Amino acid sequence: MRHDKSPIKDIARGEIDNLFLEAEKRKNTRKDLSDSYVLLANKIATRCKVKIPSTLKYRFCKNCKAYFVFGKNVRIRMCEGKLVVSCLECKHIRRMPVHGDNMNVSL
Ligand SMILES: [Zn+2]
After folding, report:
1. What spacing in Å lies between the alpha carbon of 73 and ligand 1's midpoint?
2. Cα-based distances in Å from 48 to 15, 71, 74
3. How many Å lie between the centroid of ligand 1 and the Cα of residue 79?
């Protein structure tokens, strides 16, 4: 049985949204703060067992938790029908198929 209705999980989801909003605001001025907000959001998600929404999970590197600033620390290419997202800070490469639900994800 899933307990998705617990108030702690709702608070955690709200906090994760807020942290990503703050990271977006500061990405050009304080990149170090943006990265630490992403790290904190990941810790909250792990500790409270909530998922980071699909619209946000493509906005940071899964390996080094760096917040992606397009044109600076991330490269996106299409290769054989897949989206290839390369983190230029740790060289981690993530491939994801492009279909259905993924088409609406804004990077
Ligand atoms: Zn990385």
Report:
1. 9
2. 11, 33, 29
3. 20
